[in-house]
Design goal:
This protein is α/β, with parallel strands linked by helices. The chain has 2 domains: about 220 residues, Aminohydrolase, N-terminal nucleophile (Ntn) domain (Glutamine Phosphoribosylpyrophosphate, subunit 1, domain 1, 4-Layer Sandwich), CATH 3.60.20.10; about 350 residues, Rossmann fold. It contains 26 helices and 18 strands. Strands 10-8-9-1-3-2-18 form a 7-stranded mixed sheet. A 6-stranded antiparallel sheet has the order 4-5-6-7-11-12, with helices on one face. A hairpin with a 5-residue loop joins β4 and β5. α2 crosses α3, α10 packs across α18 and α12 packs antiparallel against α18. It is globular and about 75 Å long.
Amino acid sequence: MCGIVGFINDGFNVGQKEHVLNKMLTRIRHRGPDETGLYIHQQCSMGNVRLSIVDLSSGQQPLCNSDGTLWIAYNGEVYNHIELKKKLEQKGHRFRTNCDTEVVLHMFEEYGPACLEQLNGQFAFSIWDEKRQSLFLARDRFGIRPLFYTQKEEQLIYASEVKCLFEHPITNRAIDIKGLKESLIFWAPLSPNTVFDDVKEVPPGHYLIANHEGLAVKSYWRYNFNKEKFSGTLNEAAEELRSLLKSSVDLRLRADVKVAAYLSGGLDSSVTTALVKEIQPHVLNTFSIGFDEHNYDESSYQNEVAQYFNTNHQSISCNNSSIAMALHKAVYHAEAPILRTSPVPMMLLSSLVRQHGIKVVLTGEGADEMLGGYNIFKETIIRHFWARQPDSKIRPLLLRTLYPYIPQLKDASSMMLKLFFGYQLNQTNSPVYSHLLRWKNGQQLTNLFAKDVASELAYYHPVDELSMQLEQELEGFTLLEKAQLIESRLFMSGYLLSSQGDRVAMANSVEGRYPFLDHRVAEFCATLPDEFKIRGLNEKVLLKEMMKGQLPGVVLNRPKQAYRAPVAQAILNEPSLLEEYLNPDEISNAGLFSKEKIGLLLKKMQSGKPITEQDNMALIAVLSTQILHHKFISAHQSLNEKDLLKGDVKNKQIIIQ
């Protein structure tokens, strides 16, 4: 795993190019503390910081092909690189290293952009074609690894993280209020948007080409549902899923360093751990998060699985103070507003992993999206069932079972549930029916905008626009499939795999790997009938069938437990956070939110009155946005010469052409 930066058509001299590259790379030294390298050309300059995982002795980047006409800066892992290398050697390609970076370069040399269809992995990379004077950027299918860019006339700057772009002199530092509104409603900006002006992302499953003809962004893969459904039995589907998952785990164990696993106490990470132990029976290191507050803690389940598989288990216990104190760092690395504090413990967990000398962890992300695990899917099914008899007092009571951690819903009456869940209940023909209620709750957060921001955004109704965009694509899919597609497209890459995945893991130089997001697994799950995913209100039916007798019963049969962390309990008890980021002057300086409305929100939450989930979400959304503005816009810290990456890495290569 690594970090990459680069730019084309800048007009700098060699010294200026090297200086800017060094500044950009310094911002992401956490992504690659082992080595760094620069390639400087008249038209294109690129750099890389490397976290060495495969072929530790060679594979320094940027790396070129045999005649020096193609150069690559690469972030990620292509797990099937051994098989692809053999295929390329049969076609006459010769290799100098054993790293997957060189395989990707030769794949591009042989197949061009079509090479992406053969890569099984998670990646973001750039290739400069000297002959064609063309830059190629690509990102993996699910957007596991980030890749951002900004363009001004013929100049293009790109990087693994936004903070690098701000080290280039042409990049404007400002919050994009349209992207911010999208973030509050959808939990992430609508790709390719970000929350920063003029900064875009290469969307998941896309590539970008920049040359004398201009800039073009094209799709090479999209997660979608197969109209031809799997026709076998549940047992046959379980056998096929097991085979695919085992192959996926086997590939993701390829590394020249130790590989560990996260244990959340839930089904998905337990399945991953079980398959690792089946493939490699030796001692496995596992890591998990516990909480001092009982309502958030899953330690008993984590310990149950660790003992069952006899893993070398380590855990970190988070208290409210540790969450509050690390929040600003988590937001700095997430580079986007967060609507829960959950990313913070994940960042603290990756620090524990790194302290034990481990660079790679396998995790269970993706299973909920592919196999119907989230409560929002069951909520959609119940709401649709309720909509057939909207006056029923019995049907809405089914919703009580979904959110036991929301006190107001635990023993809620039918009338209370109708007030909470009845929003647009009868709009069952809407292509985005499943998410209307969630987005309405997000929309309420935009009421906290400053008057000028609200006025400027009054014309923009992103839910309506998104609904129209998706209407044709979602036609013919089942209710569950529509919900799965929306969740995987909007939430998974933009929020889950970012703020709780790559960004907080790489903050501590740890690479996360996701067996459930092997495209072969995803494409198979897309053929499954709904009843193999959710039956009644039992989620992930197929996965549970696959693991019968192979996990502790208390874990296999427990209902889905959302991963959560304290919000108000942590933030309100840390006055320094409120004083630094939510004081009236700081709010006015940012100009994004109404200081009067934020004052009323804080007064309510500090009064001792019951705090709702909406209050919690508003508090963390506003606070994280204010932190983001402070760190990236109003108080952006310039790098001093002594801070730049120079002699403080194991290896540094500079190639000048």
